[in-house]
Amino acid sequence: MSPSVRLQEMIRVIRGARTQGEERGVIQRECAAIRAQFRQADNGTRSHNLAKLLYVHMLGYPAHFGQMECVRLIASPRYNEKRVGYLGAMMLLDEKQDASLLITNSIKNDLSHSSQYVQSLALCTLGCMGSAEMCRDLAPEIDRLLRASNSYIKKKAALCAVHIVRKVPELGELFTPASRSLLSEKNHGESVVICLALLILPAVHCLLLSIMKGLVMSGYSPEHNVAGISDPFLQVSDLNNLFYQSSNLPVYDSIFIYCFFIQVATNTDSSKTAGSAVLYETVLTVMDIKSESGLRVLAVNILGRFLLNNDRNIRYISMTSLQKIVQTDHNAVQRHRGTIVDCLKDQDASVKRRALELSLALVSAVNIRSLMKELLLFLSSCPPELRAHTTSGIFNAAERYAPSQRWHIDTILHVLTTAGGDVRDETVPNLIQLITTATELHCYTVHKLYRALIADISVQSLVQVACWCIGEYGDLLLRGECEETEPVQVAEDDVLDALETVLQSHMSSPATRGFALTATMKLSTRITHNVDRIRSIVSIYGSCIDVELQQRAVEYNALFKKYDHMRYVIVYEKNGVTLKLQTDRQTDTGMTITLTATNSTDREITSLTLQAAVPKSVQLQMKAPSGDVIPAHGLGQVTQTVLLNNPNKVSLKMRVRVCYTSQDFVCQDTVQIDSFPSPAW
After folding, report:
1. Spatial separation of the C-alpha atoms in residues 414 and 397, rounded to whole Å
2. Are 453 and 463 in contact (CB under 8 A)?
3. Where is pLDDT greater, at 588 or 655?
4. Separation CA 242–CA 124 (nearest Å)
5. How many Å apart are CA 120 and CA 97, to the nearest integer?
6. pTM, entire model
7. Coiled-coil segments, which residues (predicted)?
8. Residue 111 CB coordination number (10 Å)
9. How far apart, in Å, do the first and last CA atoms of the chain sit?
10. Is the separation of the CB atoms in 511 and 460 below 8 Å?
11. Pairing between strand 225-226 and 619-622?
C-alpha cells in the first residue's frame, strides 16, 4: 500500500484484511510511512497523515508518536489543520502528559480568534482534557466568553466552565456573576449546564430554584414550552443535580425544596412524557435526600400513578424505583399492591419480571395468604424463563411468613405440582425436613402425597418427596385413618404397585428410582404380608445398569439375608396402642427379645404392664420396663427386654398379656405369638 493513499483507501484495505496478522502488517507499514513524513518539512499532508493515525489509534494500536504533530497542527493558521490537531489532542493527550501544557498558549490565542468555529475548537478541547493548571490559566478567558453575544459560543463556554469548576472548585466564584446573567435570559440552554456545576453556591442555587418555581407555577410559556410542560429540560437537569448534591444543602434550602417538590408533584401533568420525566427526577431526588415521611409517601404515590400509565417503559421504571425503596417505605408501597399484582398480567416480559420481583418483596405476615394466591395463579401461566425465579421466591416467602405448617406444606406441594421441573435442587431435602418436623401432619401429608403420586409421576421432585414420605409413614397410609383429610383405603399391594410403577417408568430419573427403591425397602418393616414381594423387587435391581441403584439393591439384599431377624412385626394394635416385637439372636441357644409400646392417641397411656409366658422347656427372664406411661401422639415409647434360653431348640411360642389404662378405663388383652420374624432355631 502506498503511503500517500487517502484515509478512505486505508480504511478499506484494513477492513479487507482476512487475518489479524495481515491487518497488523498493513498498519505497521502505514505507521512507518507516517513517521517518515512527520520528519520531513511541511508538505501539506500533515493533517492527512494525522487523521490516518487517529483511525489507527481507534483500532487500539499505539499512536503516541503523533502527539507533537497535534501541537504543531493546533498552532497552524489553517482551519482544516487546526481542526484535525485539536481532534488529535482530545484523543491522544491528557492532563498527565507534559505535551498537553504546550498547547495552553495556542488555546488562549484561539479563544480570542475572530472565527467562532476556531473559538469552538479551543473551548471543546479545554472542556475535554484541560488540566487544573490549564483551567486556572484560561478561566478568565472563559468568563469573558460567557458574556459574549453569540449564543453558540456561550453554550460552548458554559460546558467548558462546568469542566473548570469540577477540576478547580474554588473557581466557581468567578463564574457566579455570569451565571446570574444567563439565568435572566429567555434561552436557558447555555445557562443550565453552568448553573448545575455552580449549585454548591447558595446564591445561584436559590436563584435557580426560584426560576424553576416560576416555571412550574406559571401558565403557558411559548419560549420554554414542550408538550405543555415549561422547560422540562431545565427542571430535569436541576432535579438531577439535587440528587447528587443533596448532602451539601443547608437546612433553610431543604425546607424551600420540600415546598418546591410538592408544587412540582401537584402541578405537573403526568400524562405527557415530558411531565413524567420531571416527576421521575422529582421522585429520585426525594428518595435520595433525607426528606420527611410525608414527602416520601408523595413520591411513592407518583410512582403508583406511573403504574397506571399506558406506556410500558414508564411502568417499568416505576417498578424499578419501587423495588429500590420497598424495604425502607414498605407501607407506602404496600398501598399500591393491587396495581403491582395486575402488572403480572402484562404481555411484556420485562414488565412481568419487575412486577414479580416487587410482588415478592411486598409479601409479609399480614398478606401472605392473599398475595400467595396471586403468585400461585401467576405461576400456573408464567413464561418458562420466569418459573425458576417464581418458585424460588414463593419458597422463600413461605418459609419466612407461613401462618402454619400445614399451609406451608400445601403451598410447596402446589408449587411442585405446577412447576416441579423448575425448582431448585435443595427443594426436596428442605421439604423432607419440614415434613419431618410437622409430627401432627404426617398422616395428612402421606395421604396427600400418595394421591399426587397416583395422579402423576412425571414431576420428579414431587415423586421423590412422595416416595420418601411413603417409605417413612407408610403404616399411617395403610391404617386408613386421618382426621385432617378424607382418608384413602389403601392396601399393601396398592402401595407397592405405585412404587414399582415409579421404578419401571421411563420418566423416572436415577435419583427418583433411588428414592422409590429405598421407600420399598423401608416398607418391609411396616407391612406384614408382602415382605417376599419386596424382597423380589429389591433383588431385581441387584443387576441394574445404573451403578448407584445397583449398589443400593445389593446392600438391601444383604440386609434381608443377614439382619432379617432384627425386623419388627406388630403383635398388638388396639385403642391407639401398638406393641412391636424385635428379636436378636445372641448365642446358639439364647435370644434377646425387645417389646416396644407406642401410643398414637391424643392422651397418654398409663399403668402399662407386660407379662409373658413360654413353653416349660424354655427359660424366660423379663427385665424391668423403661416406664409405665406412653406419651401421646407417638412422641415416646416404652420398652422392655425379655431374655430367652432354649437349650432343646424347640419351636418357640409366646403368650403376652398387655394391661394399661386409657381415658379412665382399664384395658387388658392377651396375644399369642406363634411365629417370630426370623426363626432362631
Report:
1. 14
2. yes
3. 655
4. 26
5. 23
6. 0.59
7. none
8. 22
9. 103
10. yes
11. unpaired
In 480-509, alpha helices (H): 492-504
Contact between 499 and 520 under an 8 Å Cβ cutoff? The reply is yes
DSSP designation for 591: E
Which three cell numbers, joined as nine digits, stand for 551?
A: 449398589
Burial of 502 (0-12, 13-18, 19+ CB in 10 A): buried
Q: Cell 392422651 sits at which residue?
A: 603
Amino acid at 263: Q
Q: Is the pLDDT at 618 greater than 90, yes or no?
A: no
Round the average pLDDT of the chain to a whole number and report it. 82
Average pLDDT over residues 475-481: 80
Residue 224 confidence (pLDDT) above 70: no
The neighbouring-strand residues paired with 582 are 594
Cα pseudo-dihedral 24, 26, 32, 36, rounded to 10: -160
Residue holding cell 413524567?
A: 276
Grid coordinates given for 407: 399451609
d(CA 662, CA 622): 24
187-203: string of b/e by CB count within 10 Å (b at 16+)?
ebebbbbbbbbbbebee
Write out the three cell numbers for 348: 411484556
For residues 587 and 568, is the Cβ–Cβ distance under 8 A? no
Instruction: For residue 423, report the phi and psi dihedrals to the nearest 5 degrees.
Output: -90, 165
| CA dist., res. 92 & res. 68, Å (int) | 10
Contact status, residue 233 vs residue 224, Cβ threshold 8 Å: no
Joined together, the cell numbers standing for residue 302 give 407518583
Grid cell for residue 358: 416487587
Read off φ and ψ for residue 112, nearest 5 degrees: -105, 10
Which cell numbers in the block locate residue 354? 419487575
pLDDT greater than 50 at residue 456:
yes
Cell, residue 75: 498552532
What nine digits make up the cell of 158? 458554559
